Every structure is written in C-alpha cells, then in structure tokens.
Amino acid sequence: MSDELVVRTDTPDGITTLTLNKPAKLNALDPSMFVAFRAHVDAIAQDTSVGCVIVTGAGRSFCAGHDLSSISSKERAPSPHFEAETVDALEALPMPTVGKIRGHCFTGGLEFALGCDLLIAADDAQLGDTHGQWGLVPVWGLSVRLPERVGVSTAKELMFTSRRISGSDAAGIGLVDRAVPANQLDNTVDALAGEIVANSWGTNRIDKQLLADASHMSRREGIEAERLRPYGAPDDMAERMARPIKPTS
Q: What is the architecture, at CATH level 2, of domain 6-198?
C-alpha cells in the first residue's frame, strides 16, 4: 500500500475505492487525513467515470476514531468545520457509496462511516460511539445520522453507555446493513458494488437525490415532488429499454 494517507483505486467497471491508510494507528483520523480524503471526494463528485464508491481502511481496522494525539497537539484543519463538512461531502456524493467495515469503527470513525449510503461489516468488527468515555461530544453529525439509522432510543443507549457492539449485533439493530464472516467481507462488498454499477448510473444518481430531497419534506410533499420528475430521465433509458429481455430461468 502507498504511503499516501488516503489511497484511491479504480476498476474499469466504475468502482472506486478510497482506503484510509494509516494502519499503524488503526486509521485514526487527523486533519491531514481529512484534507487528503476531501481532495479525493471533491474530485470524485465531478468524475462521471465513477458509478460506486467503497470506503474502507487499510490493515485490520476501518477507523479507530479521532486521533487523540492530534487533539492534544492542537493540530487544526483548514477551517473550523472542515471535518464535519468532509463527512457531509461524502454523504452528498451523487453516486452510491458503501462503507466496508472490519476491526474497529469507533466514535469519529463511526461518524465518518455514517456518511456512507450502505454499511457492510465483518461479523466480528467492533462498532461504538465512545465520545462519553473521553469527555468528548459529537461534532461531525453523529447526533443526527445515528438515530436516523437505529432510532432515537437505541442511539441514546449507544451514546450514553459508550458500548462497543459486534458487527453482527450492529446488523441486528440496523446500524449496518449486513454483517458477514470476516473472510467474506471483501467478496461481499465487491459483489454489492458490482450489482450497483450494473444498473443505470443515472437512475442510481436520481434515486439518491430523490431520497435526500424527501428527507427534508413531509411525506406528501415528497410524493408530489417525485411525480414532477425534477431530475428528468437517465441518459441511458432508451438504450436500456431497447435491450432484449433475458429469461429469468
């Protein structure tokens, strides 16, 4: 693996992987890593050759959280809310994103992961919000994104207790979408990304934007807004509709 803090790899079929690359520190986040990640995200946002993004960590962990040494040394990001805005930028990417979680996913690492559309974890991964253990508070969106995934009551329990839970338990409460044996994680995520890019990238982008729009509307407003087709039709609609129908068996 490169000595870059965040490594981008691309496949010919449109799958891009961003790998947090500080394995000796379990990919703990610091301002420099956020700067590197943000540069990749901003580039990918404009890259029409990307149909799906996988976010993961090098080595044995996804991300152990915020690098506490960078807090104590008062290392600063380029602007006051740069880290939070980077998670926002990840969430706002126009194409589907998949977080691939193995090992540790704690606190800031969990906040980071929640910026992804889908989360797939190894069943023996460890996830948790440990802000309370360190006398910290979430500032990268966890108080909004965590209850969106697991509900307010469960979010409160996780936040108030700093409890670590396994990938299997995280799947059980909806914190991750699926948990699989650790030795199947790579293949599972690759297969999921392959299914995503096999469909219309235009449809996926429009679907993602419609879902984001609806989150700010009442149910009735969302239904009515969808009917207006605010983003038109995918560019490949005619070509796909003209394809011969494949037999189902």
A: Alpha-Beta Complex (3.90)
